[in-house]
Amino acid sequence: MFDLTPARAAVVRAVADTLLPPAPGLPAGSEGVDLDQFAAAVRAQPAGAQAEFGQLLDLLGQPVVGLTWLGPLRPFAQLSAAQREELLQSWAASRLPPLRKGFQALRKLCLFLYYGGSRPGRPAAWDALGYPGPADAPTDTARPLETLRPRVDTTYDCDVLVVGSGAGGGVVAGELAAAGFDVLVLEKGPYYHGRDFTQRETDMMGALYDARGTLGTHDGGVGILAGSCLGGGTTVNWAGAFRTPDYVLEEWAHEHQAPHFTGPDFQQSLDAVSETLGVNTDYARHNGQNQALWDGSRRLGQDVKLIPRNERNLDGSDAHFRALGYSSLGDGHGHKQGTLNTYLPLAARHGARLLADARVERITRAHGRAAGAEAVYAPADGPAVRVQVRARCVVVAAGAIQTPALLLRSGLRHPHLGRHLHLHPTLIVAAQYPWAMHSWHGPSMSVVNDAHTRRHGTNFGVKLETPPIHPGLLSTVLPWLSGAQHREMMAGAAHLGSFIALTRDRDGGRVRVDRQGAPLIDYTLSDFDRGNLLAGVRAAAEIHAAAGAHTIYLPHGTLPILKAENGALCHPERLAQLPHLGWRPNQFGLYSAHQMSTARMGGDAATHPVRITGETVELPGLYVADGAAFPACSGVNPMLTIMGLAHYTAQGLKATLPVAARAVAVQ
Length: 667
Hints:
About 35% of the residues lie in helices and about 15% in strands. The protein is an alpha+beta fold. It starts with 5 loop residues before the first helix and ends with a strand.
């Protein structure tokens, strides 16, 4: 396990002070970076990544680090401030991948902890940005769900074990429990409710996201956001409830021999989950950047529409509008209708048992079938205990990263298991506007531009949407060229509007496991997908200009800047130079909030690890019901498609799995 020794801590403080030099009214980086949270973030990584991080800090603590930038042979902390900055700039632009990876890892973590509020109290940086911090606190109410809390090693019996509680697992649990099955849900993350959602980025990213929000590809080139809490991704997503495009369903049906995707039963499942979630477009207003996406797209004559969202009980008040901006950090007010507020309560009302903070180590077998699971329950307030589950059927819905990792740990060896990883790779195009945007309030995403989703007659292209904007994550996506330059960009945060170019990627990656069974993620952006992504960047820049922005920041580590006047780019020809920049990992910021297709469903058992019923090819009685089962990526925010697929899979289980007498816990 990673050890933040005093020598390594001194290096971290020196790096933080270099990335974030003191400024009037602003403390140096080391004063805003909590070292305990720094160490916790590193320890959330696989063992190999922890070792790499330790070696990185050790290198910076030795004179030999001078050889990496042809500078003085002195430890990093003994260099002058200018020399330290020059070293980091050298690493950022290095031709050596390990140096770029090391720089980006340090940059992202230090900036996020500083601006995200890792130290107690209100960070001074928030005042400099004009950021108000957490909105109105929710009412303090009792937790509506009871969760199991075993204090000794325990065995549970059930009809159906569901691993995961998000868009897939939550729906399966609710549907099967309501049908009379004895259901047990195991969730790796914690149960948060109401005021547990503090709306502080460092608190909530650390508690509600996989790997404390630091999940990424093995080479560090793609940052990955994946929910890891009760309710899974539906607790922390941006509340976009997109139906699967017809052309995608037709592709899945024909190219993957999965005809149910174009049949009436799957559409009925989409209808059912949409009704349960209260999907609607009845919100009263947009925040600044969504309004800009709407206005700029319309002025250019491009296809733009409202995004259906799964929220209820909004009254149009300023308080509700402010609160919507924080739902990616958990919705303490209960407006967002994720599984935490819908299908999990349904399951509990019908007797389902919920166990949070429980990491499933492997699926067990008996008589050639899935027979349960072995897990470790590790609550924050007590010692870890072992949990054994005996089940007649196991449904895995742990997400497209953790689901294949669990199946691989459990001995499944289908040649396509873990492959075909799709990420909807995303770039962020930010711009400065003459007026305040305050994009941290209001629905994170309420407008989508679909003018570029099917480029060159294919099913592949790019959508333009908007991301949540809070200082911690914002600081990590804005390129760092120097401490002063980054401070200046962050100072304009209140006037910043951001669009995302979200690509339906044709070419995928892979999830493997290390010796400890932790997932390792490999993904390289192909030339084909990069071409679509850069077309989205160009479109986003033009829309920013049409909406009234005066300065547009292009998403590359060299920070190309475009100026705009009177609704048009001053030098649009500069966009043509984008493909000629370096696009190797860690030369630009690439992100993913959607992971799919690592245990894909289809009619050909040789190339699809999961049958169209959801059952795995290799192990009867073991089902997959999450985004991992997508035949290919959805091309839209996948929550509703996952829920529809889980609902469809649950109907099949109801028809094939007889209801047995209720089981009991055995200690």
